[in-house]
């Protein structure tokens, strides 16, 4: 049952990622990104990480996807990738390099510790378990994150100011 | 129960697809989406490894990755908007100002 769900979600994730890469219109890519993020949220649910699945949908599929769509609507790029590619050889190089990477990761997976059976007990993944860790052991990184978000906000305002220096 | 190696293999495939997107596509927005793909693949691997080791700390790490991704997207899109205002075109192949 869980295995079937895993394969369905994995096919959805890979398929939507393929669509993201292949569509020329960035709006279609953004919609495929939303589908991809939703299927990864489903995988999180399957891994018993309920809190992360909810956060994934709210932050990624909600906020970040909206930001992307908004940027696309503002910029209206449409016909950027229609002309001849000035770096055609780069594509072949990219395909080769990625193939090598995939093979290496595959070899690593075959030899990794993953071959031995795990604990078999699901890890608590609710808001309680994650929140307890966040506010005890990881309190300082958590606070640093808030500073990072503040810095990002200030940076965005400075970058998009009309009379930017 | 799905073995964790399945999740790690899937995350490797998704990460490689993100790499392909970054290397092949020329629209900076789509390149950003590909980076999101890679971050998501890493998140999936983190949760799977956390499950494997029997702790919730992988999920805490994913939480931080989410925050960094949000900051990165906000700043990156702001940079793209600023470049678009300057150049009126969007293609990473034309942005060679800082290339030696």
Q: What is the topological layout?
A:
The complex is a heterodimer of chains A (165) and B (100).
Chain A: H1 2-22, H2 26-46, H3 50-75, H4 88-111, H5 127-134, H6 139-159
Helix pairs in contact in A: 1-2, 2-3
Chain B: H1 4-24, H2 28-53, H3 57-87
Helix pairs in contact in B: 1-2, 2-3
Report on the structure:
The complex is a heterodimer of chains A (165) and B (100). Helices cover 73% and strands 0% of the residues of chain A. Chain A is built from 6 helices and no strands. Chain B is mostly helical and 100 residues long. In chain B, α1 runs antiparallel to α2 and α2 runs antiparallel to α3. The longest helix of chain B has 31 residues. The radius of gyration of chain B is 17 Å and the shape is elongated. Chains A and B meet through α1, α2, α3, α4 and α5 of A and α1, α2 and α3 of B.
Overall morphology of chain A: globular
Q: Which blocks of ≥5 consecutive residues of chain B have pLDDT under 50?
A: none
Structural class of chain A, by secondary structure, is mainly alpha
Round the mean pLDDT of chain A to the nearest integer and report it.
Answer: 84
- What's the mean pLDDT score of chain B? 87
Largest sheet of chain A: none
**DSSP strand tally of chain B:** 0
Radius of gyration of chain B: 17 Å
In short:
Chain A has six helices and no strands. Chain A is an all-alpha fold and 165 residues long. In chain A, helix 1 packs antiparallel against helix 2.
Name some characteristics of this structure:
heterodimer; A: 165 residues; B: mainly alpha; 78% helix
């Amino acid at each position: 049952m869980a295995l079937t769900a895993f394969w369905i979600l994995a096919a959805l994730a890979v398929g939507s990622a393929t669509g993201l890469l292949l569509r020329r219109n960035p709006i279609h890519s953004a919609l495929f990104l939303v589908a991809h993020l939703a299927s990864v949220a489903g995988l999180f649910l399957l891994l018993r990480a309920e809190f992360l699945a909810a956060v994934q949908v709210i932050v990624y599929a909600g906020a970040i996807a909206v930001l992307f769509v908004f940027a696309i609507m503002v910029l209206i790029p449409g016909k950027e990738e229609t002309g001849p590619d000035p770096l055609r050889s780069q594509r072949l190089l990219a395909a080769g390099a990625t193939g090598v990477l995939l093979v290496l990761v595959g070899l690593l997976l075959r030899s990794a510790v993953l071959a031995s059976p795990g604990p078999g007990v699901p890890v608590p993944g609710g808001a309680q378990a994650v929140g307890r860790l966040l506010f005890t052991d990881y309190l300082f990184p958590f606070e640093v994150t808030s500073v990072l978000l503040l810095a990002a906000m200030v940076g965005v305002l400075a970058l998009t100011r009309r009379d930017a220096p | 129960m799905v073995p964790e190696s399945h999740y790690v293999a899937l995350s490797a495939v998704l990460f490689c697809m993100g790499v392909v997107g970054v290397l092949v596509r020329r629209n900076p927005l789509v390149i950003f989406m590909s980076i999101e793909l890679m971050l998501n693949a890493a998140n999936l691997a983190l949760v799977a490894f956390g499950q494997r080791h029997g702790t919730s700390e992988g999920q805490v790490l994913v939480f931080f990755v989410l925050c960094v991704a949000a900051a990165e997207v906000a700043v990156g899109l702001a940079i793209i908007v600023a470049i678009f205002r300057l150049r009126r075109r969007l293609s990473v192949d034309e942005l060679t100002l800082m290339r030696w």
